[in-house]
Write a sequence for this structure.
């Protein structure tokens, strides 16, 4: 099933109220009244809405009080119950609550026949009794501020599923990296050491950054990207790196991403006093300390693994060196399908065949070009009331592909193949 979940916006109010109202008649009740729900929505309390084909199919809302939050209502449109919308909504809602420093989330559901008669006599009005579910989130504490200072954040929960195709890489990363980190106890029982640092290498635009973000999303860990250029602004890059990692050490769990790591960990060369030398040395010193803590992963990405200092790549530092290449036909099909979704007349096989060596970024570029020409043609349509326009056609896509120079050349593929033989460790 396909749906999107977005943050509640003001113009969702009528739809959400309608959902709450109509689903209450179906027995999806709440201890919070409709008025309270509206109050929370208009008071900008956290809420999320699930949408399918432009129509709202579910909503979840909460209200917070300090470290505590109440899930006020999860309303699921008829026909969408039991399909996972409610749990998806709850997960998204929880992420927002945790970001607001909430530690205890309670969900009070009405349940019949839990109360004795005794309270009546004491003047109580009988109301359906409550089944009280509570979940304790790990302490966010001061690390929320720290995370903000480091420019880190929790990413949306669905990035992993959004990585189209790349099944071989996905499966490998899932088995070697995600699962041992997500299931540390089970991994320990099998003597599997969760990785602490990995490097992704491959030509530009193949999805290295995308994978790094998807891993963080999948683990539900905050994502902190260290930008060497920004750290260098502070003057001494080596000292800034040391300082950044010291602060990262105080976070409970985190994925740290360094893109284009060859810029700071290049071969040190002959001049031991050079700045690059000092920075590479600093990183070499930092990684062992970083590796000692649980629940953290350093992901470095590079387009040029061969220019990295060999000491940097030695086994004690990186658990895995994972090649991320250009997508195969299956992956390209999946990626093209994403852009041509809802247009059954587009011949995906033709596009896949015409886009060999294209990276996902190239495909994105070509798809955007095709959409743009279709859009312009539609604007130029002479007569109002002409037939409804259905989007880019196979011909539009092929024209865009023809006008697009793939980022990756055959020579780069040869280099990459050689790099896999020399450097890959998976
Ligand atoms: N597997 C994929 N499915 C869909 N889009 C992808 C995929 N991999 C990459 N992309 C898209 O291609 C672009 C380039 O990817 P990126 O991760 O930045 O590449 P890299 O970091 O290797 O240079 C991004 O816009 C990204 O969204
Ligand atoms: Mg990148």
């Amino acid at each position: 099933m396909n749906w999107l979940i977005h943050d509640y916006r003001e113009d969702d109010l009528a739809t959400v109220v309608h959902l709450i109202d109509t689903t209450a008649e179906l027995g999806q009740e709440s201890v919070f009244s409709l008025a309270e729900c509206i109050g929370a929505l208009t008071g900008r309390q956290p809420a999320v809405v699930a949408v399918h084909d432009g129509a709202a199919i579910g909503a979840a809302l909460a209200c917070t009080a300090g470290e505590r939050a109440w899930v006020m209502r999860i309303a699921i449109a008829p026909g969408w119950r039991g399909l996972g919308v409610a749990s998806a909504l709850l997960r998204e809602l929880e992420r927002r609550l945790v970001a607001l420093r909430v530690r205890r989330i309670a969900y009070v559901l009405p349940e019949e026949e839990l109360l004795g008669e005794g309270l009546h006599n004491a003047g109580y009005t009988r109301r359906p009794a409550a089944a009280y579910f509570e979940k304790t989130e790990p302490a966010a504490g001061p690390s929320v501020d720290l995370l903000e200072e480091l420019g880190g954040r929790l990413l949306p929960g669905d990035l992993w599923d959004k990585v189209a195709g790349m099944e071989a890489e996905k499966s490998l990363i899932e088995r070697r990296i995600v699962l041992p980190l997500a299931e540390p106890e089970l991994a320990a029982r099998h003597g599997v050491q969760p990785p602490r640092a990995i490097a992704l290498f491959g030509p530009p635009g193949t999805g290295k950054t995308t994978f790094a973000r998807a891993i963080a999303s999948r683990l539900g860990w905050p994502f902190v990207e260290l930008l060497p250029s920004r750290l260098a602004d502070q003057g001494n890059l080596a000292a800034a790196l040391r300082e950044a990692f010291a602060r990262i050490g105080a976070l409970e769990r985190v994925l740290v991403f360094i893109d284009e790591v060859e810029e700071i960990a290049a071969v040190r060369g002959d001049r031991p006093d050079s700045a690059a030398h000092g920075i590479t040395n600093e990183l070499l010193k930092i990684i062992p300390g970083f590796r000692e803590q649980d629940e953290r992963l350093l992901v470095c990405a590079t387009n040029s693994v061969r220019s990295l200092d060999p000491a940097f790549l030695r086994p004690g530092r990186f658990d895995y060196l994972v090649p991320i290449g250009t997508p195969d036909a299956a992956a390209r099909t999946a990626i093209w399908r994403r852009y041509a979704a809802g247009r059954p007349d587009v011949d995906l096989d033709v596009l896949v065949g015409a886009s060999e060596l294209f990276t996902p970024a190239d495909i994105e570029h070509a798809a955007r070009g095709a959409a743009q020409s279709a859009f312009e043609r539609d604007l130029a349509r002479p007569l109002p009331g002409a037939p409804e326009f259905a989007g880019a056609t196979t011909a539009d896509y092929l024209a865009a592909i023809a006008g697009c120079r793939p980022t990756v050349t055959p020579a780069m593929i040869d280099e990459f193949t050689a790099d896999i033989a020399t450097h890959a460790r998976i």
In short: DSSP finds 18 helices and eleven strands in the chain. The domain at 144-326+417-423 is CATH 3.40.50.300 (Rossmann fold). The CA atoms of residues 32 and 355 lie 54 Å apart.
